[in-house]
């Protein structure tokens, strides 16, 4: 497994600076200073910036974003749904049992709203930034094989620093690994579906306690 090759790209020194600014600097600024209610605005800005950077890179075939539905790894989709549900149940049982299935018990209609909009407003822009942009534009400066997957999972996890939770850090690292692997093996639709399913299961189980920006409390 290797990172994608790139088309005409900027010099490596500039790419490293850009990479650090996008995947380290921006999440750090968000975690330290950005109000929680500005998350989706930030995601929209990053998505547009990511699309622009992909266009500037050259050699990226936009149709890959919609190709691959026939190669959907349904066993992996089922597996990540089951694993997410089980992990959420264990975590909430041990830490905040009162939050288990809280939306289903109190506002089931709101869960349908989350399931409808989370994939498009959250999972999709995140996948654009952390999969095609990461592997295409920065492929020339990435390590090879599993090291690239580990780096991708690490920056994806770091992007969730704003939640200030070790639970979120661990879960997003593991999730990022599987999303990246699905992208490289099966294409963008697979990564998007895995991310969307995992996120929807998290909120159904009650993990919005940890993954909802409105609940964030900075430790300073």
TrEMBL record:
Keywords, comma-separated and alphabetical: Hydrolase, Membrane, Metalloprotease, Protease, Transmembrane, Transmembrane helix
Listed GO biological process terms: proteolysis
Transmembrane segments: 14-34, 40-62, 74-92, 112-130, 151-180, 192-212
GO MF annotation list: metallopeptidase activity
Domain of life: Bacteria
Name under which the protein is recorded: CPBP family intramembrane metalloprotease
Native organism: Paracoccus aestuarii
Organism taxonomic ancestry: Bacteria, Pseudomonadati, Pseudomonadota, Alphaproteobacteria, Rhodobacterales
């Amino acid at each position: 497994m290797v990172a994608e090759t790139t088309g005409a790209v900027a010099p490596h020194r500039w790419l490293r600076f850009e990479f650090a600014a996008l995947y380290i600097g921006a999440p750090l600024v968000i975690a330290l200073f950005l109000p929680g209610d500005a998350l989706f605005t930030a995601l929209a800005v990053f998505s547009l910036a990511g699309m622009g950077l992909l266009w500037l890179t050259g050699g990226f075939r936009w149709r890959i974003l919609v190709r691959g539905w026939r190669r959907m790894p349904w066993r992996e989709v089922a597996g990540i749904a089951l694993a997410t549900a089980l992990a959420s149940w264990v975590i909430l049982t041990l830490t905040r049992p009162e939050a288990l299935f809280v939306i289903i018990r109190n506002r089931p209609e709101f869960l349908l709203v989350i399931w409808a909009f989370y994939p498009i407003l959250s999972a999709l822009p995140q996948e654009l930034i952390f999969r095609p942009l990461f592997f295409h534009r920065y492929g020339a400066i990435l390590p090879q094989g599993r090291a690239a997957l580990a780096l991708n999972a690490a920056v994806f996890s770091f992007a969730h620093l704003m939640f200030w939770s070790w639970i979120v850090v661990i879960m997003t690292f593991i999730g990022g690994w599987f999303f990246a692997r699905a992208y490289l093996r099966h294409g963008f639709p697979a990564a998007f579906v895995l991310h969307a399913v995992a996120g929807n299961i998290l909120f159904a189980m009650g993990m919005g306690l940890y993954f909802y920006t409105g609940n964030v409390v900075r430790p300073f």
